[in-house]
Amino acid sequence: METEPFRTEPLPEQMKAGDICRVGMPPTVVHVTPVDHHGPPLETGWLPRPRLTVAVLRRRLSYRTFPDGSHFDGTGYSIHPGDKTPFT
């Protein structure tokens, strides 16, 4: 499983310069790890500067509970609520 939640259709290796593709994020179940509040806003080189960072781990779909945590895929991704990325 890849860290980046966004996907392209078609896959990047099937495209060449000038092609048209769809970019989106399929429904994804995640486990929230750290939530960091930044004051002053975090200097990232991007605007707007984030005031909040939420780190998440994707969860493999399962109908059982795994006490050892093995139901998490081990790869993380950080989102910055408020940066106008369309997360729901």
What's the order of the H and E elements?
Answer: EEEEE
What Rg do the Cα atoms give? 16 Å
Which stretches of 5+ consecutive residues score pLDDT under 50?
A: none
Main sheet attributes: strand count, strand direction, barrel closure: 3 strands, antiparallel
- Straight-line N-to-C gap: 21 Å
- Structure classification: mainly beta
Number-wise, the strands total 5
Number of helices: 0
Mean pLDDT: 79
**Portion of residues within helices:** under 10%
Strand order of the largest sheet: 3-4-5
How would you describe the shape?
A: globular
Key features of this structure:
single chain; globular; mainly beta; two-stranded antiparallel sheet; 88 residues; three-stranded antiparallel beta sheet
Report on this model:
This protein is mainly β. It has a domain at 26-79. The chain contains no helices and five strands. It has strands at residues 7-9, 22-24, 30-37, 52-59, 72-79. It has a three-stranded antiparallel sheet with strand order 3-4-5, with no helix packed on it. Strands 1-2 form a two-stranded antiparallel sheet. The two termini are 21 Å apart.
